[in-house]
Design a protein that fits this description.
By secondary structure, this protein is mainly alpha-helical. It folds into 2 domains: 34 residues, no CATH class; 105 residues, Hypothetical protein af1432. Helix content is 51%, strand content 4%. The chain contains 7 helices and 2 strands. A two-stranded antiparallel ribbon has the order 1-2. A hairpin with a 5-residue loop joins strand 1 and strand 2. Helix 5 packs across helix 6. It is elongated, with a radius of gyration of 21 Å. The chain starts with a helix and ends in a 6-residue tail after the last helix.
Length: 158
């Protein structure tokens, strides 16, 4: 209902300082103020999400040997979730290597607790682990790897 009213309001004409008439909101502005979840529009989210594909592409230009040959695959899938709800390929558990599962957990933990994010304050480790536990409970991340990560205490910031 709110979206319909905003769409109608967006069409209202306003006069500019030059005497031209323009709609109250252009398409991009309307999209931005009608974002339902989070703060990004779909086009902005697409740009942000493209970093995993770009990571895989960049790393595939490098030569990794031996056990590290799959590094581009691991890094390029670090936003995949065990239940298939991740991106970019919507892989499910059986297609996600253990190394990627670990990278995913580390990446989420870092995103939640990092002190260098200008758009949000860092979260306390206890709260970050509560979120990760909830994700594990919903089948998104690997509970066993999460517990190993927590027990390792490698997550402590220096």
């Amino acid at each position: 209902m709110r979206s319909v009213k905003l769409q109608e309001a967006a069409k209202l004409e306003c006069m500019t300082a030059d005497g031209d008439t323009v709609p109250l909101l252009n398409a991009e502005e309307l999209e931005a103020i009608t974002v339902v979840r989070g703060t990004l529009t779909s086009s902005e989210r697409h740009i942000v999400e493209s970093h995993v594909s770009l990571t895989a592409k960049l790393l595939s230009k490098m030569e990794f040997q031996g056990d590290y040959t799959p590094v581009p695959l691991w890094a390029g899938a670090h936003h995949e979730m065990l239940d298939g709800s991740g991106y970019p390929e919507h892989l499910k558990a059986e297609s996600i290597p253990r190394e990627t599962r670990l990278l995913t957990i580390i990446d989420i933990y870092d995103a939640l607790t990092a002190e260098d994010r200008p758009y949000k304050p860092p979260m306390a480790p206890e709260k970050a682990f509560a979120i990760l536990e909830d994700m594990a409970g919903h089948g998104k991340i690997d509970r066993e790897i999460l517990e190993s990560f927590r027990e390792s205490e490698t997550w402590h910031h220096n």
